[in-house]
Amino acid sequence: MTRPGSEVRPDPEAGPSGSARTVLIIVFVTILIDFVGFSVLVPVLPLYAERLGAAPHQVGLILAFYALAQLIFLPAWGWVSDRIGRRPVLLVSLFGTAVSFALLARADTIPMIYLARILGGFFAASIGTAQAVVTDVTSSEERAGGMGTIGAAFGVGMILGPVLGGSLATLHPKAPFYAVAALASLNLVVAWVKLPETRGPNASPPRWRELAISLIPIPIRVLGAVHERRTVLFLYLFFHLFTAFAVVEALVTLYLALSFGATELEVAMVFAWIGVVLVFTQGYLVRRLVVQSGEPRLVMIGVTAMGAGLVGVSLAPSMPWFYAVGTVIALGNGLAFPTFTSLYSRACEGEQSGELLAESQSMATAGRIVGPYAAGLAMEWWSPGTPFWMAGVMMFAAVGVFWAARRSLLAGPP
Question: Which pLDDT score, from 0 to 100, does residue 377 have?
Answer without folding.
Answer: 96
